[in-house]
Amino acid sequence: MGKIVLILIAVSLGCLGMGGTTGTFGPAITETDRLFRAQVVDKSNKSFEVQNVTVDGSTYLPAMAGSAEASIDFGKISVARFYVQDDRVLVRVTLVNQEEMDFFVQPGTRFVGRTEWGRISLRAGDIKEISFK
């Protein structure tokens, strides 16, 4: 009987913290060591003030530059304008030094962050513009 109790205690301790959460959607917002604020305008012209903006927990925009894979640092971006083109999205990036560059991202690339009223998640194909502050 004593062994069964010990086994049950060991199993129950191993299960601590395995419960799910409720009331959330999309990917979790990962805390990073760099926090970015931005104004995000979606394709319906709805504007959102967003804090802790990330792409899957990263503060780099995953993109293609020609045949090369690229990661554009949010800290280098002033404004990013999104243009849907068939199965990909052209992103015209204005860097903080005013240089403009074009990249392509997948329409499903998900941007997440926090607003004053809660969490927000938008796909690149649904975004018109992101202005970093």
Features:
single chain, 133 residues, mainly beta, 8-stranded antiparallel sheet, two-stranded antiparallel ribbon, 1 helix, 11% helix, globular
Question: Can you summarize this structure?
Answer:
By secondary structure, this protein is mainly beta. It has one helix at residues 2-15; strands at 38-42, 47-55, 60-65, 68-73, 77-85, 88-95, 100-105, 110-115, 118-123, 127-132. The protein is built from one helix and ten strands; from the N terminus they run αββββββββββ.
Characterize the structure shown.
The chain is mainly beta and 133 residues long. The protein has one domain. The protein has 1 helix and 10 strands. The chain has an 8-stranded antiparallel beta sheet, with no helix packed on it. A two-stranded antiparallel ribbon has the order 3-4. Mean pLDDT is 83; it is low at 5-11 and 15-30. It is 11% helix and 50% strand. The chain has one helix at 2-15; strands at 38-42, 47-55, 60-65, 68-73, 77-85, 88-95, 100-105, 110-115, 118-123, 127-132. The chain starts with a helix and ends with a strand.
